[in-house]
Write a structure and sequence with these properties.
The chain is mainly α. It has ten helices and two strands; from the N terminus they run αααααββααααα. The protein is globular and about 60 Å long. This is Solute carrier family 25 member 44.
Length: 314
Protein backbone atom coordinates (compact mmCIF):
# COMPACT_ATOMS: atom_id res chain seq x y z
CA UNK A 1 0.00 0.00 0.00
CA UNK A 2 1.26 3.48 -0.87
CA UNK A 3 2.60 5.54 2.04
CA UNK A 4 0.12 8.37 2.60
CA UNK A 5 2.99 10.62 3.63
CA UNK A 6 4.10 10.68 0.01
CA UNK A 7 2.63 13.95 -1.28
CA UNK A 8 1.53 13.34 -4.84
CA UNK A 9 1.92 16.27 -7.23
CA UNK A 10 -0.88 16.74 -9.75
CA UNK A 11 0.75 17.48 -13.09
CA UNK A 12 -0.61 19.31 -16.15
CA UNK A 13 -1.67 16.17 -18.01
CA UNK A 14 -3.86 15.11 -15.06
CA UNK A 15 -6.09 18.21 -15.23
CA UNK A 16 -9.45 19.04 -16.77
CA UNK A 17 -8.36 22.36 -18.29
CA UNK A 18 -11.82 23.99 -18.47
CA UNK A 19 -12.44 23.53 -14.75
CA UNK A 20 -8.88 24.60 -13.99
CA UNK A 21 -9.24 28.02 -15.67
CA UNK A 22 -12.78 28.85 -14.51
CA UNK A 23 -12.08 28.06 -10.86
CA UNK A 24 -8.63 29.63 -11.14
CA UNK A 25 -9.85 33.10 -12.14
CA UNK A 26 -12.40 33.17 -9.30
CA UNK A 27 -9.80 32.06 -6.75
CA UNK A 28 -7.23 34.62 -7.92
CA UNK A 29 -9.72 37.49 -7.66
CA UNK A 30 -10.61 36.60 -4.07
CA UNK A 31 -6.94 36.46 -3.11
CA UNK A 32 -6.20 39.86 -4.65
CA UNK A 33 -9.05 41.50 -2.74
CA UNK A 34 -7.71 40.14 0.55
CA UNK A 35 -4.04 41.12 0.16
CA UNK A 36 -4.17 44.35 -1.86
CA UNK A 37 -4.13 46.74 1.16
CA UNK A 38 -0.80 45.31 2.32
CA UNK A 39 0.61 45.58 -1.21
CA UNK A 40 -0.29 49.28 -1.20
CA UNK A 41 1.27 49.78 2.25
CA UNK A 42 4.46 47.96 1.23
CA UNK A 43 4.78 50.16 -1.87
CA UNK A 44 4.43 53.38 0.14
CA UNK A 45 6.90 52.22 2.78
CA UNK A 46 9.49 51.35 0.14
CA UNK A 47 9.20 54.67 -1.70
CA UNK A 48 9.17 57.08 1.27
CA UNK A 49 12.45 58.64 2.36
CA UNK A 50 13.46 57.19 5.73
CA UNK A 51 10.38 57.37 7.97
CA UNK A 52 9.11 60.71 6.73
CA UNK A 53 5.45 59.64 6.57
CA UNK A 54 5.03 56.23 8.15
CA UNK A 55 6.91 54.50 10.96
CA UNK A 56 5.98 50.97 9.97
CA UNK A 57 3.28 48.72 8.56
CA UNK A 58 0.73 49.23 11.34
CA UNK A 59 1.33 53.00 11.46
CA UNK A 60 0.81 53.23 7.70
CA UNK A 61 -2.38 51.17 7.92
CA UNK A 62 -3.87 53.44 10.61
CA UNK A 63 -2.86 56.71 8.89
CA UNK A 64 -4.23 55.66 5.50
CA UNK A 65 -7.45 54.45 7.12
CA UNK A 66 -7.88 57.75 8.98
CA UNK A 67 -7.08 59.92 5.97
CA UNK A 68 -8.94 58.07 3.20
CA UNK A 69 -11.09 55.42 4.83
CA UNK A 70 -11.18 51.77 3.82
CA UNK A 71 -11.30 52.71 0.12
CA UNK A 72 -7.93 54.44 0.49
CA UNK A 73 -6.39 51.00 0.95
CA UNK A 74 -7.66 50.02 -2.51
CA UNK A 75 -6.24 52.86 -4.63
CA UNK A 76 -5.31 51.45 -8.04
CA UNK A 77 -7.13 48.17 -7.41
CA UNK A 78 -9.29 48.36 -10.54
CA UNK A 79 -6.19 48.64 -12.72
CA UNK A 80 -4.44 45.92 -10.76
CA UNK A 81 -7.23 43.43 -11.53
CA UNK A 82 -5.91 43.24 -15.11
CA UNK A 83 -3.04 41.19 -13.69
CA UNK A 84 -5.55 38.32 -13.57
CA UNK A 85 -4.42 37.70 -17.15
CA UNK A 86 -0.78 37.40 -16.12
CA UNK A 87 -1.82 35.12 -13.26
CA UNK A 88 -3.37 32.61 -15.65
CA UNK A 89 -0.34 32.87 -17.94
CA UNK A 90 1.87 32.21 -14.91
CA UNK A 91 0.19 28.96 -13.86
CA UNK A 92 -0.06 27.72 -17.46
CA UNK A 93 3.63 28.39 -18.09
CA UNK A 94 4.57 26.80 -14.77
CA UNK A 95 2.66 23.59 -15.41
CA UNK A 96 3.74 23.26 -19.07
CA UNK A 97 7.38 23.91 -18.20
CA UNK A 98 7.28 21.24 -15.48
CA UNK A 99 5.97 18.83 -18.10
CA UNK A 100 8.73 19.80 -20.54
CA UNK A 101 11.56 19.59 -17.98
CA UNK A 102 10.30 16.16 -16.87
CA UNK A 103 11.61 14.79 -20.18
CA UNK A 104 15.15 15.71 -19.07
CA UNK A 105 15.06 15.42 -15.28
CA UNK A 106 12.84 13.68 -12.75
CA UNK A 107 14.13 15.84 -9.90
CA UNK A 108 11.20 17.79 -8.46
CA UNK A 109 13.61 20.52 -7.32
CA UNK A 110 14.92 21.03 -10.85
CA UNK A 111 11.42 21.02 -12.33
CA UNK A 112 10.16 23.52 -9.74
CA UNK A 113 13.18 25.80 -10.09
CA UNK A 114 13.09 26.02 -13.90
CA UNK A 115 9.28 26.18 -14.12
CA UNK A 116 9.01 28.84 -11.40
CA UNK A 117 11.57 31.09 -13.08
CA UNK A 118 10.07 30.63 -16.55
CA UNK A 119 6.54 31.33 -15.34
CA UNK A 120 7.69 34.54 -13.68
CA UNK A 121 9.43 35.72 -16.87
CA UNK A 122 6.21 35.36 -18.87
CA UNK A 123 4.00 36.86 -16.16
CA UNK A 124 6.23 39.89 -15.53
CA UNK A 125 6.27 40.77 -19.22
CA UNK A 126 2.49 41.26 -18.92
CA UNK A 127 2.39 42.60 -15.37
CA UNK A 128 5.02 45.38 -15.40
CA UNK A 129 2.97 47.97 -17.41
CA UNK A 130 -0.03 47.32 -15.16
CA UNK A 131 2.19 47.54 -12.07
CA UNK A 132 3.69 50.86 -13.16
CA UNK A 133 0.24 52.48 -13.50
CA UNK A 134 -1.12 50.79 -10.38
CA UNK A 135 1.86 51.87 -8.24
CA UNK A 136 1.49 55.52 -9.26
CA UNK A 137 -2.18 55.32 -8.27
CA UNK A 138 -1.18 53.77 -4.93
CA UNK A 139 1.05 56.78 -4.24
CA UNK A 140 -1.81 59.29 -4.47
CA UNK A 141 -2.54 60.98 -1.14
CA UNK A 142 -4.90 63.85 -0.43
CA UNK A 143 -3.06 67.10 -0.90
CA UNK A 144 0.36 65.43 -0.98
CA UNK A 145 2.61 63.96 -3.64
CA UNK A 146 4.66 60.82 -2.99
CA UNK A 147 5.52 59.70 -6.52
CA UNK A 148 6.46 61.50 -9.75
CA UNK A 149 2.90 62.12 -10.90
CA UNK A 150 -0.13 63.67 -9.23
CA UNK A 151 -3.69 62.88 -10.28
CA UNK A 152 -5.57 66.12 -10.76
CA UNK A 153 -8.64 66.84 -8.68
CA UNK A 154 -9.17 63.84 -6.39
CA UNK A 155 -12.59 64.63 -4.91
CA UNK A 156 -12.85 64.82 -1.15
CA UNK A 157 -13.75 61.45 0.31
CA UNK A 158 -13.11 59.54 -2.90
CA UNK A 159 -10.99 56.49 -2.17
CA UNK A 160 -11.38 54.02 -5.03
CA UNK A 161 -9.56 55.41 -8.03
CA UNK A 162 -11.79 55.74 -11.05
CA UNK A 163 -10.71 54.90 -14.58
CA UNK A 164 -10.68 58.65 -15.36
CA UNK A 165 -7.79 59.06 -12.92
CA UNK A 166 -6.11 56.02 -14.45
CA UNK A 167 -6.22 57.70 -17.85
CA UNK A 168 -4.67 60.80 -16.29
CA UNK A 169 -1.73 58.78 -14.96
CA UNK A 170 -1.31 56.98 -18.31
CA UNK A 171 -1.19 60.34 -20.14
CA UNK A 172 1.41 61.71 -17.73
CA UNK A 173 3.60 58.61 -18.14
CA UNK A 174 3.35 58.86 -21.94
CA UNK A 175 4.25 62.56 -21.90
CA UNK A 176 7.20 62.08 -19.57
CA UNK A 177 8.68 58.80 -20.81
CA UNK A 178 6.82 57.59 -23.90
CA UNK A 179 5.95 53.90 -24.22
CA UNK A 180 9.21 52.96 -22.49
CA UNK A 181 7.76 54.43 -19.32
CA UNK A 182 5.37 51.51 -18.99
CA UNK A 183 8.32 49.12 -18.83
CA UNK A 184 10.33 51.20 -16.38
CA UNK A 185 11.83 48.81 -13.88
CA UNK A 186 11.26 45.78 -16.14
CA UNK A 187 14.79 44.45 -15.64
CA UNK A 188 14.56 45.13 -11.91
CA UNK A 189 11.22 43.27 -11.85
CA UNK A 190 12.77 40.27 -13.59
CA UNK A 191 15.69 40.33 -11.14
CA UNK A 192 13.19 40.38 -8.27
CA UNK A 193 10.43 38.01 -9.31
CA UNK A 194 12.26 35.37 -11.32
CA UNK A 195 14.51 34.46 -8.34
CA UNK A 196 11.53 34.81 -5.96
CA UNK A 197 9.40 32.41 -7.99
CA UNK A 198 12.31 30.07 -8.76
CA UNK A 199 13.15 29.85 -5.03
CA UNK A 200 9.58 29.63 -3.73
CA UNK A 201 8.51 26.44 -5.51
CA UNK A 202 11.49 24.23 -4.48
CA UNK A 203 11.27 25.48 -0.88
CA UNK A 204 7.52 24.90 -0.88
CA UNK A 205 7.91 21.26 -1.90
CA UNK A 206 10.90 20.84 0.44
CA UNK A 207 9.05 22.16 3.51
CA UNK A 208 5.95 20.09 2.67
CA UNK A 209 8.03 16.93 2.36
CA UNK A 210 9.84 17.56 5.66
CA UNK A 211 6.58 18.31 7.50
CA UNK A 212 5.01 15.14 6.11
CA UNK A 213 7.65 13.09 7.95
CA UNK A 214 7.27 15.04 11.19
CA UNK A 215 3.48 14.75 11.40
CA UNK A 216 1.27 11.67 11.86
CA UNK A 217 0.35 9.70 8.74
CA UNK A 218 -3.31 10.56 9.27
CA UNK A 219 -2.66 14.30 8.92
CA UNK A 220 -4.17 15.61 5.64
CA UNK A 221 -1.67 16.71 3.00
CA UNK A 222 -3.37 20.09 2.70
CA UNK A 223 -2.18 20.93 6.24
CA UNK A 224 1.49 20.40 5.30
CA UNK A 225 0.99 22.44 2.16
CA UNK A 226 -0.79 25.29 3.98
CA UNK A 227 2.13 25.62 6.41
CA UNK A 228 4.81 25.14 3.75
CA UNK A 229 3.53 27.99 1.58
CA UNK A 230 4.17 30.81 4.09
CA UNK A 231 7.51 29.29 5.11
CA UNK A 232 8.61 29.27 1.48
CA UNK A 233 7.24 32.80 0.96
CA UNK A 234 9.12 34.15 3.99
CA UNK A 235 12.34 32.51 2.79
CA UNK A 236 11.95 33.90 -0.72
CA UNK A 237 10.96 37.37 0.60
CA UNK A 238 14.07 37.67 2.76
CA UNK A 239 16.31 36.65 -0.14
CA UNK A 240 14.73 38.96 -2.72
CA UNK A 241 13.51 42.00 -0.73
CA UNK A 242 16.59 44.16 -1.52
CA UNK A 243 15.85 43.89 -5.24
CA UNK A 244 12.15 44.51 -4.61
CA UNK A 245 12.92 47.83 -2.87
CA UNK A 246 15.12 48.91 -5.80
CA UNK A 247 12.47 47.79 -8.34
CA UNK A 248 9.76 49.84 -6.61
CA UNK A 249 11.93 52.97 -6.51
CA UNK A 250 12.93 52.60 -10.16
CA UNK A 251 9.29 52.35 -11.21
CA UNK A 252 7.77 55.01 -8.96
CA UNK A 253 10.57 57.61 -8.92
CA UNK A 254 11.36 57.29 -12.62
CA UNK A 255 15.00 56.30 -12.21
CA UNK A 256 16.89 54.80 -15.15
CA UNK A 257 19.66 52.85 -13.42
CA UNK A 258 19.40 49.96 -11.00
CA UNK A 259 23.00 50.50 -9.88
CA UNK A 260 22.55 54.25 -9.26
CA UNK A 261 19.31 53.59 -7.39
CA UNK A 262 21.12 51.04 -5.23
CA UNK A 263 23.97 53.48 -4.50
CA UNK A 264 21.58 56.30 -3.62
CA UNK A 265 19.59 54.02 -1.30
CA UNK A 266 22.75 52.86 0.45
CA UNK A 267 24.00 56.44 0.81
CA UNK A 268 20.69 57.70 2.22
CA UNK A 269 19.62 54.81 4.43
CA UNK A 270 22.42 52.25 4.58
CA UNK A 271 21.99 48.45 4.33
CA UNK A 272 18.84 48.58 6.46
CA UNK A 273 17.11 50.42 3.60
CA UNK A 274 17.25 47.21 1.57
CA UNK A 275 14.91 45.58 4.08
CA UNK A 276 12.25 48.31 3.93
CA UNK A 277 8.75 46.92 3.56
CA UNK A 278 9.90 43.39 4.44
CA UNK A 279 7.49 43.04 7.37
CA UNK A 280 4.58 44.28 5.23
CA UNK A 281 5.66 41.87 2.50
CA UNK A 282 5.76 38.89 4.86
CA UNK A 283 2.51 39.93 6.57
CA UNK A 284 0.76 40.16 3.20
CA UNK A 285 2.45 37.00 1.94
CA UNK A 286 1.51 34.82 4.92
CA UNK A 287 -2.30 34.87 4.68
CA UNK A 288 -2.24 35.25 0.90
CA UNK A 289 0.13 32.30 0.48
CA UNK A 290 -2.01 30.11 2.73
CA UNK A 291 -5.04 31.02 0.62
CA UNK A 292 -3.06 30.60 -2.62
CA UNK A 293 -1.64 27.21 -1.64
CA UNK A 294 -4.89 25.80 -0.24
CA UNK A 295 -6.79 27.30 -3.16
CA UNK A 296 -4.33 26.15 -5.82
CA UNK A 297 -3.99 22.61 -4.46
CA UNK A 298 -7.76 22.37 -4.01
CA UNK A 299 -8.23 23.80 -7.50
CA UNK A 300 -6.01 21.09 -8.97
CA UNK A 301 -7.89 18.41 -7.03
CA UNK A 302 -11.25 19.77 -8.24
CA UNK A 303 -9.87 19.91 -11.78
CA UNK A 304 -8.47 16.39 -11.71
CA UNK A 305 -9.72 14.23 -14.56
CA UNK A 306 -12.57 11.99 -13.29
CA UNK A 307 -10.81 8.71 -14.09
CA UNK A 308 -7.87 9.68 -11.83
CA UNK A 309 -9.79 10.74 -8.70
CA UNK A 310 -9.90 7.30 -7.04
CA UNK A 311 -6.18 6.71 -7.58
CA UNK A 312 -5.14 9.65 -5.37
CA UNK A 313 -4.62 9.79 -1.62
CA UNK A 314 -4.92 13.16 0.09
Amino acid sequence: MEDKRNIQIIEWEHLDKKKFYVFGVAMTMMIRVSVYPFTLIRTRLQVQKGKSLYHGTFDAFIKILRADGITGLYRGFLVNTFTLISGQCYVTTYELTRKFVADYSQSNTVKSLVAGGSASLVAQSITVPIDVVSQHLMMQRKGEKMGRFQVRGIPEGQGVVAFGQTKDIIRQILRADGLRGFYRGYVASLLTYIPNSAVWWPFYHFYAEQLSYLCPKECPHIVFQAVSGPLAAATASILTNPMDVIRTRVQVEGKNSIILTFRQLMAEEGPWGLMKGLSARIISATPSTIVIVVGYESLKKLSLRPELVDSRHW
